[in-house]
Amino acid sequence: xxxxxxxxxxxxxxxxxxxxxxxxxxxxxxxxxxxxxxxxxxxxxxxxxxxxxxxxxxxxxxxxxxxxxxxxxxxxxxxxxxxxxxxxxxxxxxxxxxxxxxxxxxxxxxxxxxxxxxxxxxxxxxxxxxxxxxxxxxxxxxxx
Length: 144
Hints:
Largest sheet: 4 strands, parallel
Structural class: alpha/beta
Helix content: 40-55%
Shape: globular
Strand content: 5-15%
Radius of gyration: 15 Å
Distance between the termini: 34 Å
Strand order of the largest sheet: 1-2-3-4
Number of strands: 4
Oligomer: single chain
């Protein structure tokens, strides 16, 4: 089982709430984090530096626009990594520095993408994820 941050939820909408529950659950607690939900709930992305990569077997990678405001975003506002306002390479670099070697999962509910052929969405998503990951690797290499 993994504990997931849900930015729209009345509880567990922020990273610090989820970390509290994970700490109370014990050392076997695993986190399923999502860039969109971290932003949506108002979590500080810099807090990811507190989390060991081994505690995150999966990370939902996506992005979000500047508008609407975080509290008004819906799942349908998610965009490809790098197409929004998140500093995706920095987020990934922080995770990699803490030993993240889990799976990156593209999670999009954007209705505009539903109108496109599935293969096109898959290929575009994978290409954009790889690009953001390469940028993150370059950042981590520069910090060594």
